[in-house]
Amino acid sequence: MEVKTDNIQEQINQMNQKLDLVLQYVTEQRLKSEVIEDLVSDLSIIGKDAFTSAIDELDKQGIELNIDDIKELAFKLIRNVNNISQLIDLFESLNDLAKDVGPMIKEVGIDFTNKLHEFEQKGYFEFIVQMAKLLDNAVVAYGKTNMEEEKEYSLWKIFRELNSREVKQSLGFMLTLMKNTVKESKQITQ
């Protein structure tokens, strides 16, 4: 009989251990529940204070909110999460591109400025200004010339006109321009 009693005692001890574990678990659950209740209570107080503060501030600013508009906005945001994510990805890509391209654009700007300085040193801009004046003068002179009123020139009259100061200056200018153009083109090709 003693064997039976020992066996029963062992079973009782095992049951006591299991019961202790269950009681410990219940106690832990009760503590967790109390912590959650305290947290919910604190969050409720904070939420009410934040809501009240937000309403007071909106009232001070004279802003009226329509709850239906806010709900509609929230639904639109939720519906367009993928689009918003793609837009953010695009901005990130553009930012990365700007970081990569920025130094190259700066270098191109410096090169462009140096090239403009070189052109200015060579007198290209002054040449362009003078050519613009020349073309402007040619347009004014052409405007003053009436083809219907011009008479035909005889060869003798042409030879006499060639001897005039204005024609000599014009021909000299044209010859000098052509010579300088040839010189410049030779220098550029070398």
Envelope shape: elongated
Alpha carbon gyration radius: 48 Å
Number of strands: 0
How much strand?
under 5%
Q: Can you walk me through this structure?
A:
The protein is mainly α and 190 residues long. It has helices at 2-61, 67-79, 81-122, 124-144, 155-162, 165-189. Among the domains are: 1-65; 152-190.
Give a brief outline of the structure:
This protein is mainly α and 190 residues long. The chain is 89% helix and 0% strand. Among the domains are: 65 residues; 39 residues.
Q: What labels would you give this structure?
A:
elongated; mainly alpha; 89% helix; single chain; 190 residues
SSE topology:
Blueprint: H1 2-61, H2 67-79, H3 81-122, H4 124-144, H5 155-162, H6 165-189
